[in-house]
Amino acid sequence: MSPITKQTIAIIGSSSPIGTFIAKGLCRSNYRLLLFEENCDDARLLSDEITESFNGTDVEFLDCSHQASWEADVIIIASQDSVLKEISEKIKDVVTQKTIAVTLDSESKTALKVAESYFPYSKVVGMISSKNEPDNIILLSEHTSALNIIQEMLFQTDIKTTIKVQTNYSGVHIQTPGV
Predict the structure, then answer these.
(1) Which of 128, 40, 28, 30 lies closest to 78 in space, CA to CA?
(2) Which residue, 70, 78, 135, 142, is the most exposed by fewest CB within 10 angstroms?
(3) CA dihedral in degrees (152, 154, 156, 160; nearest 10)?
(4) Longest dimension (CA), the chain
(5) Residue 68 has pLDDT above 80, yes or no
């Protein structure tokens, strides 16, 4: 079910495989998409591809992660762990109380805690792709409401969901039809 009011979703790292997959999936639902990529040409190409493929889609590329995050209700950071701190420094003043989903290289609680430390006033959800099963995504967070938001968004991309409980964390295990 699409949200009644149109939410704005910023996808930072939109040309990564998971960023592209999520963007193409969400464009069919009632979301406004803001795509950001360090290489503006990649984000522009993806925006053009989505606009041509899905008539009436509300998608645009922005050349500033700060602006995309400021306008967004939810931020998806589909970049490597190694650049998360750099991204956080650019956007942390405009993401207070927002839901942020970040891709993590590891399913460890430490990786999620590090991500949360970069965004102390936001609701952070970790997204981990399984190395053995690349068509699976695991969501981790202490924030049930944020988990529900991200789970619902990913459901809009036709991702199948099942629950996976993490010690001291609420967790949702998501099976994708293929990324």
Answers:
(1) 128
(2) 135
(3) -100
(4) 44
(5) yes
Which range scores top for mean pLDDT: 6-10, 50-54, 77-81, 170-174?
6-10
Give the residue from 21, 144, 110 showing the smallest Cα distance to 163: 144
119, with CB counted inside 10 A (0-12, 13-18, 19+), is buried
Distance separating alpha carbons of residues 159 and 138, to the nearest angstrom: 12
- 29: its two tokens: 């639902």
Phi, psi of 8 (to 5 degrees): -100, 125
96-146 pLDDT tens trace:
999 999 988 876 678 888 999 999 999 999 888 766 665 678 888 888 889
The first and second tokens of residue 27, run together, are 């464009």
Distance (Å, whole) CA 179 – CA 65? 24
**Angle at CA of residue 83, ends 66 and 76, nearest 5°:** 55
Strands (E), 5-152: 7-12, 31-36, 58-61, 74-77, 99-104, 123-129, 136-141
Task: Sketch out the chain's domains with CATH numbers.
Answer: 7-175 (3.40.50.720)
